[in-house]
TrEMBL record:
<dbReference type="InterPro" id="IPR054129">
    <property type="entry name" value="DesT_TetR_C"/>
</dbReference>
<dbReference type="InterPro" id="IPR009057">
    <property type="entry name" value="Homeodomain-like_sf"/>
</dbReference>
<dbReference type="InterPro" id="IPR001647">
    <property type="entry name" value="HTH_TetR"/>
</dbReference>
<keyword id="KW-0805">Transcription regulation</keyword>
<feature type="DNA-binding region" description="H-T-H motif">
    <location>
        <begin position="59"/>
        <end position="78"/>
    </location>
</feature>
<feature type="compositionally biased region" description="Low complexity">
    <location>
        <begin position="1"/>
        <end position="10"/>
    </location>
</feature>
<feature type="region of interest" description="Disordered">
    <location>
        <begin position="1"/>
        <end position="25"/>
    </location>
</feature>
<dbReference type="InterPro" id="IPR050109">
    <property type="entry name" value="HTH-type_TetR-like_transc_reg"/>
</dbReference>
<protein>
    <submittedName>
        <fullName>TetR family transcriptional regulator</fullName>
    </submittedName>
</protein>
<keyword id="KW-0238">DNA-binding</keyword>
<dbReference type="GO" id="GO:0003700">
    <property type="term" value="F:DNA-binding transcription factor activity"/>
</dbReference>
<dbReference type="Pfam" id="PF00440">
    <property type="entry name" value="TetR_N"/>
</dbReference>
<dbReference type="GO" id="GO:0000976">
    <property type="term" value="F:transcription cis-regulatory region binding"/>
</dbReference>
<feature type="domain" description="HTH tetR-type">
    <location>
        <begin position="36"/>
        <end position="96"/>
    </location>
</feature>
<keyword id="KW-0804">Transcription</keyword>
<dbReference type="Pfam" id="PF21943">
    <property type="entry name" value="TetR_C_46"/>
</dbReference>
Amino acid sequence: MAATPSPVGDPVEEPVEEPTAAERPRRAAYRRLPVQQRREQLIAVALELFAARPPEEVSLDDVAEAAGASRPLVYRYFAGGKQQLYEAALRSAASELTTRFTVEPTDGTPTQQLGAVLHRYFDFVGEHAAGYGALLRGGSVVETARTSAIVDDVRRAALRRTLRHLGVREAGPRLTLLVRSWISVVEASAISWLDEGRQIPADSLCAWLVDQFVVMAAATAVRDGQTAEVLHGWLELETAESPAGVLIARLRDLGL
């Protein structure tokens, strides 16, 4: 099937043969879109497919069919084939996810602010389950150094954002390990939340993750002076009604 470029949108496709009966419904759904809109559509469709199945099991034909387009049209936008489309899809998900936790909260205690960031994070997870799943489910043979770097960039941004929230300029190895470990807990919790059909309300999950951070910080503070100093500064700003204050009261009720 030959294609000639269009200056305002998708290339004009010139069929060389009549479509089969199976093809007619898909071809009938085809409509020309502006270049950027078509690219975004293909990426969105790819994210859905990559999240539902291992990327190596997704073909460009699958993407084209789901998008109501043709395989040559997909190649027109992603000349590098499935690998280029996979990387573009991951970058799209990574970019939007990163924006969710780079906006600095200004109201509330430190743990209330941390909870606000987590709510934005889980808003993204809930609204874009496919993008999140495609971004963080590893183990695919389609993964390369570039795709791994995309995911690592998100984690580094989360690390920087959390340390900034803690008021830390230079984190020592134990404090860095604490934050990295907690970020892994957040990621694993989000994936499990999606896999289990979101049985736990997002608000409850975010509150639990804030508690996890406080408890992990307390355990680390026992062995690390920098973490102890940071945690002490945080707790001085907490109130009886804040997440940390409520957690401490409940632990006391348990005799801990």
